[in-house]
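User: Predict the complex.
Assistant: Input components as received:
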Amino acid sequence: ETGVTQSPTHLIKTRGQQVTLRCSSQSGHNTVSWYQQALGQGPQFIFQYYREEENGRGNFPPRFSGLQFPNYSSELNVNALELDDSALYLCASSKTYQETQYFGPGTRLLVL
Amino acid sequence: AQSVTQLGSHVSVSEGALVLLRCNYSSSVPPYLFWYVQYPNQGLQLLLKYTSAATLVKGINGFEAEFKKSETSFHLTKPSAHMSDAAEYFCAVSVSNAGGTSYGKLTFGQGTILTVHP
């Protein structure tokens, strides 16, 4: 059984640019949650997608947006990148939004 | 709103010694509680979870945690530390609704870095 995968593993962008991060959920899982982990901090909830609909959002501005596809993979888009967006972005999938979340390896984003 | 406090950002133990990582939570409704471990440059791996069944929860790699409602705590322990346990550990809470099912959003603590000395 394939676990949660994320791409790319690393990314360098400049301030003001846009970025798309991708996540493939574990087989049989219909929910994807995204978290931002700044250096030295615990992960912060960005939003969750359940059966292609947003199912909750954390305290992040609208320039953070997402999408979930019919195969339950997901994208996280960030527009107008800021230096503070530099972080490890973690994706987690679960069987439903009520079930345990299993995390991918993350995408490390550096904004210069 | 729920929150998690991990006491001690760094814990250092000798190999073979007891590991105790502290976690206190705040939640107005029955919580679901989790411990995750993060090795350098990796994602989070689930160690164990509490979902209102037994208060003593056993996880992988010899770890266990006890849910104490009166103390609002969910401390993680391991009787004998191994060098391979060196990592960062995160406690997380997910609140439940009246039906007892989780809302899914995880709120994490700041993490505790565990160092194991030979």
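The longest strand of chain B covers residues 87-95.
Let me know if you want any component modeled separately.
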